[in-house]
């Protein structure tokens, strides 16, 4: 008889697409500083100008969230693994498709 297969271990993806659910979003009126806030929060250089619909493409970033309470829980309960939390941030613009259609005509 051939040997039996053992349990297959699943590989944990630390960076990459973990899920399709939005965890956090930045919403607001045009020209109120959403892109600037995004740049400060993520330490990135997304386009941020002083005119409406400057940011047409969604900006996407992951930010490590370090929390002393989480570290305490891992140490207190002697956890076998420690999985870091990430914020995934990108923008949703209402009416942007209408603006793009008008601009392209």
Compact summary:
The chain has 105 residues and is an alpha+beta fold. The chain has helices spanning 34-42, 68-76, 96-104; strands at 24-26, 61-64, 86-91. Strands 1-3-2 form a three-stranded mixed β-sheet, with helices on one face.
Descriptors:
26% helix; single chain; 105 residues; three-stranded mixed β-sheet; 3 strands; OBG-type G domain-containing protein
Could you characterize what this model shows?
With 105 residues, the chain is α+β, with helices and mostly antiparallel strands. The protein has one domain (24-104). Helices cover 26% and strands 12% of the residues. The protein has three helices and three strands, in the order βαβαβα. It has helices at 34-42, 68-76, 96-104, and strands at 24-26, 61-64, 86-91. Strands 1-3-2 form a three-stranded mixed β-sheet, covered by helices on one side. The chain starts with 23 loop residues before the first strand and ends with a helix. The mean pLDDT is 68. This is OBG-type G domain-containing protein.
């Amino acid at each position: 008889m051939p040997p039996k297969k053992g349990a297959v271990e699943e590989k944990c993806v630390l960076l990459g697409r973990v899920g399709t659910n939005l965890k956090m979003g930045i919403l607001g009126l045009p020209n109120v500083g959403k892109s600037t806030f995004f740049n400060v929060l993520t330490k990135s250089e997304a386009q941020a100008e002083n005119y409406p619909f400057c940011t047409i493409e969604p900006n996407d970033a992951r930010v490590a969230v370090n929390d002393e309470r989480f570290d305490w829980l891992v140490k207190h309960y002697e956890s076998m693994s420690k999985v870091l939390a990430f914020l995934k941030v990108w923008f949703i613009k209402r009416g942007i498709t209408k603006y793009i259609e008008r601009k392209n005509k």
